[in-house]
Every structure is written in C-alpha cells, then in structure tokens.
Design brief:
The chain has about 525 residues and is of the alpha/beta class. It is built from 21 helices and 18 strands. Helix 3 packs across helix 15.
Length: about 525
C-alpha cells in the first residue's frame, strides 16, 4: 500500500505515545480511520462528538499527555466544541483533529464547511491545518496546557507522503530561579498564617507527594481549588479543605486573614476566588505558575514565580512549625465534612456519601458534571490519592459519564463512580452505549430531583414564586440502562442504597442507580423552602 499523509499522521501519534483515541467517524477523514485500523492505537467510538471530546479530555487529565479526538467537519466539529471548552478552561492538553472539505472547495461555503480558525480561535491555543504535528503537540503541552485544533482537508489525507513521522515531543519544565526561591523561603518562614492553595493541571503523582512533604517540612496548611481536590490527601493533618462553590466559612476567613497566600499552579479564577473577591487587597500573594502570561494577569502578586509546581516544591528549602494553626484548620475541615448530614427526603445524598466513605477505597475514581448534586461530592467525599477526581472546572453539564468511561478504560481494575444529575446525565447519557461496547463497567449515580436544580435555586432566589422552564419529566433511568445492555436499579430509600451500590459494583456491566431524591434537598446548606423564605 502507498504510504499516505493519513498513515504519517497515525505513525506520529504512535511516536507521541498515544495509545488510545476517541472519535465519531466521518467521511471527511476516512483515510485516517483506515490507517488507525492497522496501528497499535485503540479507537474508541463515541455516540456524539461532545462525548468523544470529553472522553479525550478526561483521559488527558489522567495521563498528563494530550488527549486525542477525531471528528468530522461542520456539525461534528461544532458538537466537539463543548469538550474543547472544557480543555481550555481546565488547562488540559487536548488535540482535536477535525475533517475539512477538500482544498479546492474551500471558501465556497461547501457542504459542512466551517472556518475553524474563526470558530475555535477564541477557545483553542492554536488552530492550524496539518503541517507539523510536532508543533501541535508542543502547543497543547507547553506553558499553560490547553486544546489545539487541527484541520484535515479530506483530499490531502489520501495523498502519498514520504515525510517521516515526528519524534515524541517533550516540553522543558519551567524552574524557579534561585533568587525567587530564596525570597519565597524568607517570606514563608516569617509568616504566621500562611496558606498554600493548590490547583491547575500541570501536576504528576510525584508532585502531589512532594506537596505533602513540603507541607510537613514548611509547617503550612494546604487547600485545594475547585475540582482539584485530588492534589492533597484529605486525611492528611495539613489539609484545610477546598476553595470553591459553597466554601467552608472558616476556610474563607483563613484566606482573608492569611499573611501569605501561596497560589501554587492555579490561576485562582472566578469560582475559587469567590467571584474575584479573594484575595483581599491587603493579602500578600505569592503566585507560582508555569505560564508567564498568567502571572500578574488576574491577581496582583508581590512575588511571581514562573515554575511548574513539582519543580518549585522540590527546590524550596523553607522550614517551619505552626502546629496549632495547621491543626485548627484541619479540624475545621473535618467538622465541615462530618457525616451524617441531615436533608429532606427518604433517599438522601448524605447516605450516598457515607456509603462511599465507608468503602475506604482510596483508589476509587470519582467523576461528575455540573449541578448542585456535585456540592455533596466536593464537601463530603474524602479524596486520598492523586488522579482520583476527574471533573470540569468549566462547570460543563454532561461531563461525568464520558469522563467515567475514559477513566475506566484507563484503569479497568479500579472502581469508577460517576455522579450525574437528571439534567446533567441526559446531556450525554447515550454514551452508555459506548460504555457497554467497550465493557467500561462504571457505576453511574443519577440524582433525580425532577428539575435543573442549580438553575431552579437561582430562580427561586431571584424570581420568587415564578418558576419557569426548570422542571423536568424524566425517563426511568434504570430501565434505560437495561435497554442499553447495562445494569439498572431504582433506589428511593436510604436503607436500600448500600446493597444496591454493592450490586452495581458487581454487576459485570456498566451500571446505573436511579436515585429518587427530594427536590427540597437543593444543596447541603439549603432547601427550596429556605430559599423561598419559608
């Protein structure tokens, strides 16, 4: 067979260490599909391009290497944009290959033609037509990681190609300079109420280990930003809690009163900064981030250090002892996350979280999309290990199931639990078919309160007594799971959940537990009645 551009592209993916790609097939890149057939790369077929892109993004979160997704032109590329947006907001390396019309048809509004640069230009780190795959992977990985979009003209893919496949791309890590490190160590050792806030995407398992060691040696408490809670063991004596939606008031006070706030790897964007209300103007800030363009862009820092978290942590020589201060913050976290937690209804999220905590399974991976149900996960689940939380800081609905499938394919030996609201699940619920096809035995907990709960909460606050367009009529989610070839069970009482969850874990197929919860239980801290003032 003649070696084509498509074969060269697939060989380059192999050289990059890509062992799995996600796609929805399309005629615009048939040559690539043909080349993938004979490659060492596994091809996972999703049911909708948004699901495929979210799977690839989640896989990248778990591996640290770019996730790869192939979609067709026009509608396929448009559908995939939901996953590209997640990668952009979450700083996740992702490469989206999108089929494009033949070069001779460009600019004529040809069938399914899209101007990818105009469409993705404000969302992706780079938008290009395939010419140098090396450059594409470097763009996805370097500085602040993110998505790169590559257009594949369908006529080009079948052309003969003698260009050798590109070698694996590696990105040199940014390391802190000595003067900055010494200045940091001096500031930290002099501080009485320092707080390290960890986040961002450029972490490896050894970096998380280094963070724990640094916390002990430097005598500092550590908090994690929104949906990056897996960066620090929640049972470690130096853990202070998460800074996100529904923050522990005691932790917020600690942020406000800190005499040295260390932002480590995180941009400290809108959600953790409480709509940019934190840090306070008087708070001294040290910002450590691998991308120089992020330093001093949103938050003023008295010391800005360009470095990746791991390199920074291992280079710091700070020493300290603040046992009472650290202990008080950890005790505050333990009290804030204490179970059981009362809420209305016969089936409660408090019971769900207690059951998962009782498993004592530190390797369990938890995924979720967007919705008030996720507040229970953030507040009450105790993440113990790096790589056990896969969730969108972008707040994208529908993310949980595709992410769970990617996680289970990456770690088939581990329990993977997806939390999804009834509205959230129905964004990508068709990916249950993908889970069945690839034997991804995830456990999906569909939290059904018959409404778009987060929007209803804001609606009740802003327009009391004027409910509109937030109610849902839902299917029998357990029956839907069985129709796809999975396991399904409806659970309406706390007493029935532990046994149902055990059956779902042992079902030998992707499983859905349809949890019928009260609409009154809107968040761990509020009911609908309380929002209405009753």
């Amino acid at each position: 067979m003649t070696r084509t551009a498509a074969h060269a592209l697939v060989e380059t993916l192999e050289n990059q260490g890509i062992d799995r790609v996600f796609c929805v097939p399309g005629e615009s890149y048939l040559d690539v599909l043909d080349a993938l057939r004979d490659s060492s790369i596994e091809t996972v077929v999703a049911r909708q391009e948004g699901g495929a892109a979210m799977m690839a993004e989640a896989d990248a979160k778990l591996t640290g290497r770019p996730g790869v997704v192939f979609v067709t032109r026009g509608p396929g590329a448009a559908n995939a944009s939901s996953g590209v947006h997640v990668a952009q907001q979450d700083s996740t390396p992702l490469v989206l290959f999108a089929g494009q019309v033949a070069r001779a048809a460009r600019g004529r509004d040809a069938f399914q033609e899209v101007d990818f640069e105009a469409f993705y230009g404000g969302m992706a780190k780079s938008v290009t037509e395939v010419d140098d795959p090396n450059r594409v992977f470097r763009a996805a990985l370097s500085d602040r990681p993110g998505p790169a979009v590559v257009s594949l003209p369908e006529d080009m893919l079948g052309e003969a190609c003698a260009t050798p496949a590109q070698d694996r791309v590696t990105v040199k890590e940014a390391a802190a300079d000595g003067a900055s490190l010494r200045a940091f160590d001096t500031r930290l050792e002099a501080a009485q109420r320092p707080l390290v806030v960890a986040g961002g995407s450029v972490w490896r398992p050894e970096d998380a280990t280094a963070l724990g060691e640094f916390a002990e040696t430097a005598g500092v408490p550590v908090a994690c930003v929104f949906r990056r809670q897996h960066l620090f063991d929640h049972e470690h004596a130096h853990y202070a809690g998460d800074i996100g939606i529904g923050i522990n008031p005691a932790l917020r006070r600690a942020v406000e009163e800190s005499d040295l706030l260390v932002l480590l790897g995180t941009r400290f964007s809108e959600i953790p900064s409480q709509s940019y209300g934190l840090p306070l103007a008087r708070t001294p800030v040290v910002h450590v981030h691998p991308d120089a363009s992020e330093l001093q862009r949103v938050h003023r820092a008295e010391l800005a250090i360009r470095a990746r978290p791991g390199a920074f942590l291992t280079a710091s020589a700070a020493r300290g002892e603040r046992r009472a201060y650290v202990g008080a913050l950890h005790a505050g976290y333990l009290e804030w996350s204490r179970l059981p937690h009362p809420s209305p209804g016969e089936m409660t999220m408090g019971k769900v979280m207690a059951t998962l905590r009782d498993l004592d399974d530190s390797a369990m991976i938890v995924t979720n999309g967007a919705g008030n149900y996720s507040a229970w996960v953030h507040r009450f689940h105790r993440f113990r290990r790096f790589g056990t939380q896969v969730a969108p800081t972008s707040g994208s609905m529908g993310y949980g199931l595709p992410a769970a499938i990617a996680a289970k394919l990456r770690h088939p030996e581990r329990t993977v639990v997806c939390f999804a609201g009834d509205g959230c699940f129905q964004m990508t619920g068709q990916e249950l078919a993908s889970a069945v096809q690839y034997d991804a035995r995830v456990v999906v907990l569909v939290v059904d309160n018959g409404m778009y709960g987060t929007i209803r909460m804001h609606q009740e606050r802003n327009f009391p007594g004027r409910v509109h367009a937030t109610s849902l009529t839902n299917p029998d989610f357990a029956a839907l799971a069985r129709a796809y070839g999975g396991y399904g069970e409806r659970v309406a009482r706390d007493a029935d959940f532990p046994a149902a969850f055990a059956r779902a874990r042992k079902a030998g197929a992707p499983a859905v537990l349809h949890l019928v919860v009260s609409p009154e239980a809107i968040t761990p801290a509020a009911t609908l009645s309380s929002l209405r003032g009753r």
